[in-house]
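RESIDUES AND SHAPES:
===
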Amino acid sequence: GPARHSREGGIVIHVDFSATEYGRASYSVRRHGSESFRLGAEDLMAMVQSAIDDGDGRDKVVEAVADKVEEDAWGACDPSLNDSGDHDYSEHQESETGDNETSCDRAEIRRAVLAFVRERHPELAAEL
């Protein structure tokens, strides 16, 4: 959906989470969930400013935001992951961690970043 603005400023990105949990009984199960990730105004402006300083366009900001989501979303969000599909009882390597993945829509990030910059720092919008 559209990016929501809050009093604290910044942007909110919808993040989809998925993980494969590997259990001791040699099973794996795919889990999915989604959650909103909040990126504060200061962090976002630092990304915008550094992209402008480096002569990069908004794609660079979008990538920076996506990278931050990738790095921080598991720690910052608490998605309730629902089992999707069957437990797969097969022989595979013991692993406590599983494959944790996040995905977010870069088009949504781009729209949110632009809306934020136009609203808060219209003078910078032209440079992005």
In short: The longest helix spans residues 58-76. The beta strands are 11-23, 27-39, 82-89, 99-104. The mean pLDDT is 83.
